# Entry
Amino acid sequence: MGGLGILSEANSLASRGEPFALATVVWREGPSSGKQGSRAIITAAGELSGWIGGACAEPVVIREAKQAIADGKPRLLLLGTADRFGGAIQDGMTVVPISCQSEGALEVYVEPVLPAPHLVIVGDSPMAHVLARLARALDWAADLVPGPAFSPDYAAGHVSARSMVVIATQGHGDEDMIGRAVAARPAYLGLVGSRKRGAAVLGYLADRGLPRADLDRVHVPAGLDLGHTSHEEMAVAIIAQLVQLRAAGALADVSAAAQSATATTTLPTSIPATTPATALDPVCGMTVTADAAHWPLEHDGATYYFCCAGCRQSYESELATR
# Structure
């Protein structure tokens, strides 16, 4: 797959809200099999589509792409024997020494593509409308849902572990709205209202059996405490809290915990693809697949894997002199 096929798959993944990384070869030195302009998509699970290079480059790019997806930071990789580049290595580049038999080298730009933050605002007040506009100004996906439309089916179908939910129904069915949102286990759940009102709502739900651990995750009142504010300023306070929590990584942690908790009670609909185990070549430090094709060598109860027969031979020679 290449060219328009890669872009089409990227668009498909983005439309489904799935994170991925786009890797592009920006420079090569022959006889590397990678070509300048070659592209590949790597998913969070480590599945690669497209072409970025041969067996030497692929495991390294997959590893770095998964890290880029996790931390949200792009990186520029320089793949090759480090001493051959001398002073040509620029600040900010990640040098990954590899010693393939081809003796080629690659420079690969890895760019994470993460889903837009998803905010669900339940309510139809002026504050709710301002909050939706602020979120969209940040290029977030914002759904403004009147209270009666936030049914259990809607919550189950539109709220995920990466969603942020703000209940702004101003006392009109707050208890039902919180109960439905809690069941969807969003990354953030906030209630617009006073602390006294919030305590009453959460106490009512606790009396009816909602787990205390779930109720403790509800932010009441939603937003940063800015004192007495207008409805426009209240919307700013809420969006500021969401930005603060996202920047600190707090929402990612909650989302992962929610997905983990859901996984313990939900049967999978299909068997996910597994990512092959990897190992570091003890000679050159290259990441390789830990399988029978990568020259396994057992020594002192451990199994080592190599990028090529030459590295395995070098390691055997080193062991013989010990």
